[in-house]
TrEMBL record:
It is a single-pass membrane protein. Gene3D superfamilies: Immunoglobulins (2.60.40.10). InterPro entries: CD300_family_receptors, Ig-like_dom_sf, Ig-like_fold, Ig_V-set. The keyword Membrane applies. GO terms for molecular function: transmembrane signaling receptor activity. The chain crosses the membrane at residues 106-129. Keywords: Membrane, Transmembrane, Transmembrane helix. This is CMRF35-like molecule 6. One of its GO terms (cellular component) is plasma membrane. Residues 4-42 form the Immunoglobulin V-set domain. It holds the Pfam family V-set. It comes from Fukomys damarensis (Damaraland mole rat). It is found in: Cell membrane.
Amino acid sequence: MRKATSGRVTIRVHPASLSFTVTLESLTLEDEGTYSCGVDKPWLDSTFKVVVSVLPASATATASYLEGIRSTVGPPLFLSMHTWHSSTKQDTSRPSPQPWSLFSSIHFLLLVFLKVPLFLSMLSAVLWVNRPQRGSGWR
């Protein structure tokens, strides 16, 4: 797991489950709003909008869960978002591994639609050039 922190925002990357967790500490009412969340991929818009609502917390720790969000492009994304009033309690849960569609991988798409046809074309050209020639004396 890799972790990067900038101010109140922490991003944890979980390569084994192909997921990441974004944590915003010490929420205030000014943090309410719509945020874009996702991974930057060339030629694909894999971001989605997350609406954050901030409510005054009660004396006990409260948790809210947001699960089953689907992005508009690619496979379903499942999020687990935890917020606690107590600043000493930390989120130790990890997202469960997610099934990723093979067709969402840019490497797979390049292989199927570019590399395989190019290889077959080159193989056909080599076989065409090396085909047996008819001699002028052959009838």
